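Please go through the sequence line and token line underneath and see whether the fold suits the sequence. See right below:
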Amino acid sequence: MTAHPSSLAAANGSYGQTLFESAFQLSAAPMLVARMDTTVIAANDALVRLLCRPREQIIGHTTKELMISLASETRDELVAALERDHRLRHVLHSIVTPSGTRELDASFDLVEIDGVPHVVAVLVDLTEAMKAEELAAAAIYAGPAGMVISTLDGRLLQVNKAFAAALDYSPDELTGKNSAEINLWWDQAQRNDVIDSLTRLGIITGLELSFRSKTGRRIEFAASWQLMSVGGTPHIFCIAVDLSEKIAAQARARENEQRFHEIANSIREVFWLTTLDKREMLYISPSYERVWGQSCESLIRQPGQWLEAVHPEDQPRVRAAAAQQDVQPYDERYRIIRPDGAVRWIHDRSIVVRDAAGRPQRLCGVAEDVTERRKLEEQFQQAQKLESIGKLAGGVAHDFNNVLTVISSSNQCLAEELADRPDLADLTREVRVAVERASALTRQLLAFSRQQVIEPVVLDVSKLVLDTEKMLSRLLGEDIRITTRLPADLPLVKVDPGQLNQVLMNLTVNARDAMPNGGQLLIETTPVELDASDAAGHLGAHPGPHVRLSVTDTGSGMSREVLAHLFEPFFTTKAPGKGTGLGLSVVFGVVQQAGGHVEVLSAPGAGSTFHVFLPVCTQEKPAERSSEKGASRGDETILVVEDEDAVRRVAVRTLSSLGYRVLEAATAEAALDLFGSNLPQLDLLVTDVVMPGLDGRRLSEQVARRLPGLRVLFVSGYTDDAVVRYGVLRENVSFLSKPFTPEMLGRKVRQVLDAAPSAPLAKDTEQVARARRAQ
């Protein structure tokens, strides 16, 4: 690995350092090395990605400048603790990056680089639940050689600065002194052995021994002696290399290796190191056993074992890429099959470790289990696909509802005119039936796309199933036995009862079609508590108390391929003409709109179970109220605002025939212009919601400023409007869904006019008061 100019290169070219830098750069955890004044001197790629800054804007800057500093008093406490304990773990704090605030768990190690204390920081990003890594740093140091000339009896004639400094002396303090006088030798017997050997051999090389420093410390040296004659007198020439730094470096190297193993043993990724030819596995982290389900010892014995576990469909590609690992980048995603049969997705990447001359030496890599991440990505992609189809379906249904409103209203008027013509009246009844079928289809499209206006109530799911059981039995037929398990004390949920009935019917019909020769159907309700891990496996799910509605059949079951497309609209395994493919799509949309989720368990020949999870509601169930039909006729003044000409004409004609005085406008702007003229007293505003320019909600707010207390009836075909929130009607909002008949319009208008005045949609009481004072 080519070292970055700011990398830890204290021992450039050494195997240990190269291995360290490889792990430093490959680590999935953000890491940095800083001086004690917090100036950053090294940063790995993960930190660059975390801070969203180029490396050049990190190196040489303090952590405070990078917005990862702590409060000064906290920082002082951490520095003191770090200097005392040499390491700190699990220090929680926040940083600010261009992508937002990140919560981090930081670990610090105090190390020496070139004799200067530095801090190595390993950061774990808690926001994205990424994996923690720790890293320690060390360097290998060397010292200069010392030189001494002495007599055989031990008198020091010449001593250079390097030797003296190694023993805490100055050269003058040693020159002329006898070694015995200053107790220089740690072991005097060893000195005697050296003199004896030197007298016999004349030279001794590479002998390791100990000297005593001025302060009494034991200093290790590697020394070579030569006996030489000076003026006919034998003298001893000695070159001594201080081994203190070497010994200390060896100790640090052992500690560094231990820390490296601790880091490798603690990370969830599989860290591996092999020879270039991959015939020998030099190191494999313990995570291999968790991910591959095989022992590290077995991989060391058989280095190709990991490749044998690769899925047969992925093996050719992975083998081809692995064969080129030493000459080109390796970054592969593949499946493995564990001994227990489980299939896991792996993201494997590696680099070539090079020596100081750039020659390749080792292969070093990290393999990560991305199975759960891939599942979430697939769920997200599926949700995006369904969302796109839903928007299209909702838009089509909205426009179609306008057409159906005109057809339905016109057909009802025609039916009244042709009441005495039975032959023609039959035709109007056929039109009415066709309109009802088309309306049901648009309701299914809107339910799937979660754009249907719903009115949820607090209800008991067990009671709803019990009330529907007889109808479901007729739907299933005599050859299917239905069983229910419905506890009486089930928690309440908040959902549209009509939609939940639709869900239950669709699941029942789906089960019936899976049992053409009869079978058993079990419907049960159960209170369950979802924890964070349960919710994490389903997009949009939330932990907490839920009610689970389960529908289980003994039918043919479904394959993985069918399950992958189960909730897609218009997907069906039935023969042409036997189904629309919207049934389960509607189930998906309704449950999602209610804040829940659906789980399916099925296998070919083993039947199917659909679990519908609905969040528990803490509200109490309101008392049931009987509905009363009000009279449809009246003489009030109504303003109708609708951009669709045909729909507006139907509404005006219907209301006029009921005795109301009706004003009309094609746009919100045109309606506001009416207030500039001598507009008589207005009793009701009937407005479409989605219109070009000013929409219906903003129109009602502006009208409310001029006529406080004016009643408003909103009309629309789907929930992508401002008068509803997530498909649920806001409080005090009167709403009529398209398509509607003249009878429905007349009844709703009368109901709104007879109701007590409600607060305007813009709930600014001071604004309303000012409007009243202005009148």
Notes: The chain has a mean pLDDT of 77.
